[in-house]
Specification:
five-stranded mixed sheet, Glutaredoxin, TIM Barrel, 2 domains, 15 strands, 36% helix, 15% strand, alpha/beta
Length: 477
């Protein structure tokens, strides 16, 4: 998954949303052009994609200039997070696309004007964003909308999902408000109870799924989305660095898990404890944690398995052992692979062999399984010095019983139940993947303590604006 830079360019806005997370900084100015271009250059060393954010980046006089700079620096995806109002003008859309923008994330918060305009505190903003979405759609652009759930719009979320389907957006996301900025100031009027919000979120996701429109919810724990865990947006957020005011948070996921969000003592027994981020810390400080209750079931240690619905349902089930010999060991790793001798399969087998002492010391028995006959297995093992058993599944019946696909590894517990499935084996480091999976399956709950600060100050000296223009071959904004 590509790494993304989230670059915050300033605090000017033409709306004043009641849940704005930076509401306490609104209207305090914009960052100079040269500084933003320098941030783009520094982040390009580690990121392939960029998101322009801030209060409302489209209001900057140098907006097209910055987008062009990102394009010239070679960013693959250039997303604009926006309230959509400037994109109500088709010429503005066309100029942004020409400059290099190729993904747009407008924020629409209700399916009716009075509620949307009330939440943005900007009369006419609903009409503008609807027009913006239509323009961008007609221009063939990718549209991924964002909605903030609030007390005044929660019952309208299913109708909003239907509107997104009608507008033919590429994806929609509904986010729980982060209670900072305006959302903290107006907490009692803005922030809903999650347990009251959940049914409307679930219905909105159902509508999106039935229309084949990708959709998700952000900052809502798994326990409040039973049966719809695959819609949790944190499963999809790419590795991201947050850039603002000369500072960078290099690992946004770690920062929000360790510092931004929280979990509770009752989470220790939840099956999703290893992967759940919990709610924003400010929420339970105001409303407590009683609505967050553990979900029973086998532990879920990896986000990839949640997105593999068919095999996610296998967790905790008895392994289909028909056709297999007696499997020894406290833990068993069954590595399904396509064929002996291919480069990827050879790399995987050699990785497993090199890690075999560590796996064995941890009580993990290893078996490889492919359609190849035992004679070919013997040659493959001899050529690569393999000492773990290779099993033949010439009919494919074992793979079908496990729903194994082309390449995947199943970890069975001492009772020979399916404890985990590695759905994306790293063929060069697969032994370590297996070891870490068992380690996570047997680990205790994570610490509830707030983690250390992860903000780094950027030390590179920005160029002057003129130098930045010359370096990128840009005309002045």
């Amino acid at each position: 998954m590509s790494r993304r830079a989230d670059i915050k360019t300033g605090y000017t806005c033409n709306s004043n949303c009641v849940f704005c997370v930076i509401g306490d900084k609104l209207f305090t100015g914009e960052r100079p052009t040269a500084e933003v271009i320098e941030e783009l250059k520094l982040s390009r060393r580690t990121c392939d994609d960029v998101v322009f954010t801030g209060a409302e980046v489209t209001l900057r006089q140098d907006f097209f200039h910055l987008v062009e700079a990102a394009r010239r620096l070679g960013y693959r995806t250039i997303q604009i997070q926006t309230n959509g109002r400037m994109f109500a003008y088709r010429e503005f859309c066309e100029r942004a696309i020409k400059a290099g923008a190729n993904e747009f994330s407008p924020s629409l918060h209700a399916p009716v004007a009075n509620v949307h305009d009330g939440l943005t505190r900007s009369q006419g903003s609903f009409v503008q964003i609807i027009q913006a979405i239509k323009h961008l759609r007609d221009l063939g652009q990718r549209i991924v909308t964002n909605t903030v759930a609030a007390k005044t719009n929660l019952k309208l979320l299913p109708d909003l999902a239907r509107l997104f389907v009608e507008l033919k957006v590429d994806q929609f996301q509904i986010a729980f408000p982060h209670p900072t900025g305006h959302a903290a100031t107006y907490f009692n009027a803005v922030v809903p109870r999650m347990k009251e919000l959940a049914p409307y979120l679930q219905e909105a996701m159902r509508i999106g799924r039935e229309a084949s429109v990708p959709c998700m919810v952000e900052a809502v724990p798994y326990c409040l989305m039973p049966g719809q865990e695959q819609f949790i947006s944190e499963l999809f957020i790419p590795p991201t660095e947050i850039v603002y005011d000369g500072f960078v948070v290099p690992d946004y996921k770690r920062d929000r898990v360790d510092r931004g969000k929280t979990r509770f003592p009752q989470c220790a027994t939840c099956r999703f404890e290893p992967i759940c981020e919990g709610p924003w810390r400010e929420y339970p400080e105001m409303l407590g944690s009683d609505e967050f209750q553990p979900v029973s079931g086998p532990r879920v240690i990896d986000t990839d398995i949640v997105l593999d619905a068919e095999r996610f349902a296998l967790l905790g089930a008895a392994a289909p052992l028909a056709g297999l010999p007696r499997l020894e060991g406290k833990w068993v790793a069954l590595a399904f692979y396509p064929e002996d001798g291919s480069p990827a399969c050879t790399a995987e087998a050699c990785s497993l062999q090199s890690g075999l002492p560590q796996l064995s010391a941890s009580g993990i028995s290893l078996y490889g399984i492919s359609p190849d006959p035992l004679e070919k297995h013997a040659v493959f093992s001899q050529q690569n010095g393999l000492t773990f058993p290779l099993l033949s599944d010439s009919s494919g019946s074992i793979a079908r019983a496990f729903k194994a696909g082309v390449r995947s590894t199943y970890i069975l517990d001492s009772e020979r139940r399916i404890a985990h499935v590695i759905v994306k084996p790293d063929v060069k480091n697969h032994a370590q993947q297996v070891f870490e999976a068992v380690k996570r399956l047997t680990a205790g709950p994570r610490s509830l303590e707030k983690g250390p600060e992860l903000i780094i100050r950027r030390t590179a000296k920005p160029q002057t604006e003129a130098e930045a223009e010359i370096a990128l071959g840009l005309d002045a904004p």
